Amino acid sequence: MHTSSELKEYQNIINGNSSPVSSGKMMDSIDPATGKAWAKIPLSTVEDVERVTASARGAFAAWSSLPARVRGDYLRQIGDMLDEHGEELLNLETRNNGWVRDNYNYLNIVMKQLWYEAAGTASNMGSHGKTVQMGRDNFGYTLRKPYGVVLGILPWNAPLFTFTIKAAYALAAGNTVIIKPSEHAAVASLRYGELLSEILPPGVINVISGFGSDIGDALVSHKEVNKVSLTGSKATAEAITKASAGSPKSLIFELGGKSPNIVFQDADIDKAVNGLINGIFTRNSGQICVAGSRILIERAIFDEVLLRMKEKIQDSYIKFGNTLNTENTMGPIANLPQYNKVISYIKIGQEEGAELVFGGRSGGSILLPGDSDYADGYWVEPTLFKANTNTLRICQEEIFGPVAVAVPFDSEKEAIEIANDTSYGLAAGVWTTDLARAHRMVDKIEAGNVWVNTYGIVGADLPFGGFKESGYGTDSILDYTQEKTCVIDFN
Q: How far is CA 6 from each of CA 1, 194, 204, 209, rounded to the nearest angstrom?
C-alpha cells in the first residue's frame, strides 16, 4: 500500500501547462473499490481562479478567429489521440469513480464519436443561420457566434464523458473552455486536460480542481466567464444560479432524474428484464442520471417480472471485484458520502414499509471469497423494493445508487400518471410490442428522453436534455453559440 507521500500528484492545466496551485495544498483521491488513496489532486484557491479565467480569456480571440474547419482539424486530432491514450484515461476514471471498464462502447462509441461529430459540426456552423427578405429594400440574416469563455462543471459519476461533451461542442463553436471536475473524481479530467493541451493552442482548454465551496462561486460569478454548463444536482444548480446573479450569464443544467422504466403485458419479457436490470444495476451501480430507478410493471405480469429479475441477479449475472477487469459487471459506490446516502435510503425504504425483493447488503459482505483486497470498498448489492404507491420517498427522491422500487399499474392511463408523478423529467423506458401504444407513451411521458424496447442509448446524433427539475439546455453546438441578427437596407 502506498503512503500519502508516495502517491502520484496531478496538477491543474492552465495556459497549456501543468500548473501547481498557489496554496500548494493537495488532497488524496480515493479508489472506491478499495477505500484507499491512490493519487493526489490540487486544491485550488480564488487566486488560481483568476489565473485560469485570464488564460481562457486570453486565448479566445485567436481561437474564435480560426476558420471553423481548422478548429475541426484540432478536434479530429483529439479523437485520434484517444487511440493511444484512451486505455490510460479509462483506467484513471475507473480508479476515480469505480465504474467497471467498458472499453469499446465508452471509448469508441461515446468519446471518440463526440470529438469527430463536433469536428464536423464546426465546419457546418454557418448553416445554422437563416436569411429573410424583410421588405423590398431590406434583407435580414442571422449568424451564430461563440459566447466567449465556457465553464463546464463535471459530476463525479462520468467525468470523461461529461468533459468530452461539454468541451467538444464548446470548442467547435469557437469558445475557450474551463473544466471544473468534482473533487471526488478529478484525476482523469486533469490528465485528459493535459493531453488536450498538447494538441490545442495554449489557454484554449483549462482544468482546475478543488472544492466547490472554495472556488465554485468565484468561477461561476466571474465576469470573464460567459456561459456555465453543469451536470450535477439540483442543489448545485441553485447555488450556481444565485452566485451568477450579479454577473448574469447563459446556463445549461443537466440535473437528476427519477426515471420510470415501464413494462406492459405485451412486452418481450426476457428483453424487458435485461433492460430493467441494466437500466439501474450493473456497471455503474445505478450512479447515472437516467437510471431506471422506478420500475412500473403491468399488474398481470408483476410477480413474474420480479421473479425473473431476482433469478437473473442471483444467477451470477452480477460479478463484483476488480473494476479494471471487464469480466466483472458491477462496481462500487463512487465515494464515501454517496455510499452513506445509498445505505440510508435502503433503511428508509424498509422503514416506509416497502417490501425488499432482493439485495440490501453492503460493504465487504457482498464480495466473493478471495476478494479481501476490496473488502474496504464502498460496495452495495443490487437492491429492489416493491411498493403499492408512488408516494414513498424511495419513489420520489433520487438515490443515485443500485436501488430501485417496483410499482404495479392496471392501465396505460395509470402508467402515465405514475410515470409523470415526480418533480423530475429526464428519461423513461417503455417496453411494449404495440406500436400505437409506444407512440402514445412517448407523447404523454414528461421526459426529455424516452426509449422504447431499449434503455439508456445516447450519442452525438441526438440532443440530450431534461424537463421539469431535470434541467434545461443541451451540450450541443447551438447551445454554445448565441444568435446575432443583421438587417441591411440595400436601397
A: 10, 21, 32, 20
Q: What does the alpha-carbon distance between residue 81 and residue 191 come to, in Å, rounded to a whole number?
A: 13
334-338 long-range contacts (CB < 8 A, ≥24 apart) are 334/32, 334/96, 334/97, 334/98, 334/156, 334/157, 334/184, 334/185, 334/287, 334/378, 335/30, 335/32, 335/156, 335/184, 335/185, 335/378, 336/30, 336/35, 336/378, 338/156, 338/287, 338/378, 338/400, 338/401
Q: What was the pLDDT predicted at 1?
A: 47
Supply angle C-alpha 359, 363, 364, rounded to 5.
110
Average pLDDT over residues 11-15: 98
Report the C-alpha dihedral over residues 310, 396, 160, 249, rounded to 10 degrees: 170
- Among 39-53, 73-87, 119-133, the minimum mean pLDDT is found in 119-133
Eight-state DSSP code of residue 165: H
- What does the alpha-carbon distance between residue 335 and residue 48 come to, in Å, rounded to a whole number? 26
SS3 assignment, position 453: coil
Q: pLDDT (tens digit, 9 = 90+) per residue, 199-209? A: 999 999 999 99
Active-site residue among 183, 194, 224, 254?
Answer: 254
Between strands 205-207 and 227-231, the pairing is unpaired
The SS3 of residue 85 is: helix
Give the whole-angstrom CA distance, residue 96 versus residue 181. Answer: 11
pLDDT over threshold 60, residue 3: no
Residue 332 near residue 285, CB atoms below 8 Å = yes
**pLDDT tier for residue 127 given thresholds of 50, 70 and 90:** low
Looking at residue 368, the DSSP 8-state letter turns out to be: P
Spacing of C-alpha 420 from chain mean position: 22
- What would the pLDDT profile of 178-187 be if each residue is shown by its tens digit? 999 999 999 9
330: Cβ contacts below 8 Å, ≥ 6 apart: 100, 281, 282, 283, 285, 318, 319, 320, 382, 402
Q: pLDDT tens, 343-398?
A: 999 999 999 999 999 999 998 878 766 678 899 999 999 999 999 999 999 999 99
Q: CA 274 to CA 156: how far, in whole Å?
A: 26
254 noted as active-site residue: yes
pLDDT, one tens digit per residue, over 447-467 is 999 999 999 998 777 889 999
Residues of the chain with pLDDT > 90, as a percent, come to 84
Q: What domains are defined for the chain?
A: 4-255+471-486 (3.40.605.10), 260-461 (3.40.309.10)
51 has a pLDDT exceeding 80: yes
The 3-state secondary structure of 25-73, one letter per residue: CEEEEEECCCCEEEEEEECCCHHHHHHHHHHHHHHHHHHHHCCHHHHHH
* Cβ pair 34, 376 in contact under 8 A: yes
